[in-house]
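Hi, here's the filled form for the chain we discussed.

Project: internal
Contact: R.S.
Residues: 179
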Amino acid sequence: VNSFINSRMEEFYGVDYVPIVFSNGVKSESHPDKLQEIQAIGLSFTSYGITLDFNSSDASIEVTIDNLSDSADNATIRAVIVEDSHTYSQAPGENDQTYFAHSLLDVFENEEMLTATSGDPQTITYDLSDITIPTISWNNGFNTRTPTDLSFIIFIQKKDETKEVLQSAKLSLDDWGGN
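And the returned structure, exactly as it came back:
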């Protein structure tokens, strides 16, 4: 969608392909359907309370992180805007794919260190005016559209070489008109 964001993520993660999902230690054959299977299994992992409050009057999202069940030393908090899903009437590319889920649209520049503890919550406010929803084009710009099915995703991620996502939360932005 956005070559600048794409190259930043390639550099950060050191990969240039779609993420792979592992379920019970076995590489899944599809994404994102396996994510629902993983959630249904109820695997145990470090948990945090993540509360997301959207204020439509000033287009901001307040994130509160608390109730840490385990230490998260050397972890950061990152946030992104995604398009939940879109189905094209004709494939926009050459691989016949028409359905796209959780397409990355923009990344909030500020990366926060996780400072919350089990007894001391952490609150961060994200200003949606910092985000620009790109126009998506294909067929050499002949076809265009503006994404509308948007969500805010926050995730807590280790800063070490694994870049493991410890937990995430998602908030629908149906009430936001976008920028």
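Let me know if anything looks off before we file it.
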